[in-house]
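User: I've been going back and forth on whether these two constructs are worth ordering. Before I decide, could you fold them both?

Assistant: Sure. I'll take them in the order you sent them. The first construct and its structure tokens:
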Amino acid sequence: MRSPQDGHPVPRPAVVVAVVMRRERIANRWQSWRWSLADVVPHEDSFGTQPRLLLDDENETRWLHPGFTVELFLGDAEGYYLNVTTQQPCFWVVWRMEEEAAVADEPIALPQTVTLSYHDAGRWLDAQENVEQVPASPDVVQWVKTFVAQHHVQEAKRRQRPQSFKTLEDRFGNPARVSTGKASGGPGRG
């Protein structure tokens, strides 16, 4: 986006967050641990810029991943609208497992991106990514609702044509004929 007055870039509305990932012990003979999204919290400068271990015991491990910028885009106002009009508006986080251990002694789950857009989450799910959600805080929900109120334009509902005016088609999509006249001629009629 550029300012109409001077052509300089206009910053998008954004919030910076940190993602908390959790590894928990599970009772499964093929897999003893499972990774999942634990929380999305407001970023604080004291978090630093690198992932850090918050908790490590025999049943659970938690990692903090700071510095994810969540921007609101004008072109996705409908995606934010669909989120904030649900019973529980949320953040969606896409995460992937490390292929080789780079952050810790063994591979950990690394968040890739965070969004508030219903459409983004749907695209990632369609692409078979690991996508999880956590409730957004009331102040974030209000911030997104304000954005939606300013930028989302509800599409006008279109009147559906009555079914009686639609052309008839056979099962192959070809026009079908319906005769309302009396059957005449042919074998067996008479």
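The second construct, handled the same way:
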Amino acid sequence: MKVNQAEIIISAASKKQYPSEPIPEIALAGRSNVGKSSFINKMIQRKNLARTSSKPGKTQTLNFYLINEKFHFVDVPGYGYAKVSKKERAKWGKMMEEYFAERDQLRATALVIDIRHKPTEDDCMMYDYIKHFDLPVMVIATKLDKIKKGQRNKQLQLIATTLEMEEEDQLIPFSSETGEGKEVAWRSMLSHLRL
């Protein structure tokens, strides 16, 4: 997939701010600091369209990126970050529920997980949460370049087992550094976007 155009359209805090175009969307979810912004930037070959931050919990809105004027990537707030107040977390929860439950344009979710670690309880809850809305999930096991080749299969197996992944959902090893897994991720996304 060649990306010729990518821009952030809006950072939305509620559904009245969502873009109105009836084009398909892929949501991007993951723990704070897991590498979602790096994943987006690698997929669209831009250095910093999605801002990477050393401060977890930076994304506090739903960020809509228009890609090739054909579909949206929607970056949702990272979860599992303790320094955010309970009130703030409750607000995010409501915003995410509104989006996942009511957004007709949403076709699938890419759940970004660090391949080096066993999925956390929050990761498992997020996977189950997305499946609750009958959405397909692509699990993007990022930071692939940080582990030895011999460890890959063991870590992928650990992720699939811990999340109790359903058969139709794809687990894609990915590196934002080398780009490995990028074509597979695009193929998976395009099959859900049905462009």
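Notes on the second construct follow. Residues 52-58 have pLDDT under 50 and may be disordered. Helices lie at 36-44, 86-102, 121-132, 152-163, 182-193.
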